[in-house]
Structure prediction request, 418 residues.
Amino acid sequence: MIYDDGFNYLTKMCLTNMREAAFRMISIAKEHGCTVMVSSSDSTDHFEKYLQKGADFILIGEAEFTLHELIESINNGADNFHSIEGLAYYSGEEIVKTPGRKVIKDLDSLPFPAWDLLDISPYKSTWLKHAGFFSMNMGTTRGCPFKCNWCAKPIYGNRYNSRSPQNVLEELKLMKSKFGFDHIWFCDDIFGLKPGWVKEFADLVNLENFQFRFKIQVRADLLLQEDYIRDLARAGCDSAWMGAESGSQKILDAMDKGTTVEQIYEATRLLKKHRIKPCFFIQFGYPGENNEDILKTIHMINELLPYELGISVSYPLPGTLFYERVKTELKEKANWTDSDELMLMFHNTYQPAFYKQLHRYVHKNYRLHLAIDNIKGILRHPMETNFRKLKRAASLAYYFPATIMAKQKLDTLQSAVN
Prediction:
């Protein structure tokens, strides 16, 4: 069974090296006489390619019930694959794709992962060595009801189903007793969207005196209620990653994002007030973006100074409206080789090299402004100075000239187009 992490945005990008690795695993398994089943975002979108490489079955969409029924059918020697929903396979020379399976609504009905089968020690030692704490992942929901036109949902779709706070806490307690984690990344597309969920979770965490830190992914418009943020803080939320995307309202509207720049500002203010670190996902290169839009985004970053920053360029994922708009331009290259490639694969205002340099410049410029902000903080409150603040302040010596050089290269690439 080859399974890909359906919560990870990068796995939806069908990166060439990941797909080739899956094909190689299929080949090795077949050489050893194995029956090969694959479940992933990419295999759901391109099941024909995986079957042609030797996979016996592709599990399309949520795989739990499909896998259970498929294994039972194989073990019983039955040839009733056509009756199993959410499956693709060869029947003779023809590929059969059965009707899709409905999403699982009662997530509490699923058993906890078989944590006892995992040797966690290499992961834990690596985390402690490089980060000084041990973090693990957990999903509390599946799906997203919002319809940003660049975001694909090949596994869970536009539904939103949630585990109960009690169920989540029980698994956290189990993981804590087995592995002694310090931190959790709740890797949901959107954490705590269900009304009252976060409050109930915070109440349970406090009642059990269960102490841990966690980070989440969330929309800016969901962070406008101070009670919600207060409950996140009570539960142990350390940082919140927002899909800010752009500082230009024109671009947010073009994306069908459903949020405003003003909401990003207010959400950031409230998070900082309750000592939760705001972090931004930023996306450059969406069709129609011009230099004015880029400058608005850079201004927003420099003014709000999120705790961390993730920058990418617009990526057309199969199954999205955005993909349909630009797919005729995806001739030579339809996906990245790896996550660091950052190649713009369709025609836009500037050439792909410009956006790769923009990525470098914005990161350096952001670090420069963080350094300046830390220097100001040290001058205002010298008694509150710590090593992290001193380190960031000292980084001015590197980021000041590095930002100037990055901007010069960016200007050269921009003028070559204009």
Observations:
- The radius of gyration is 23 Å.
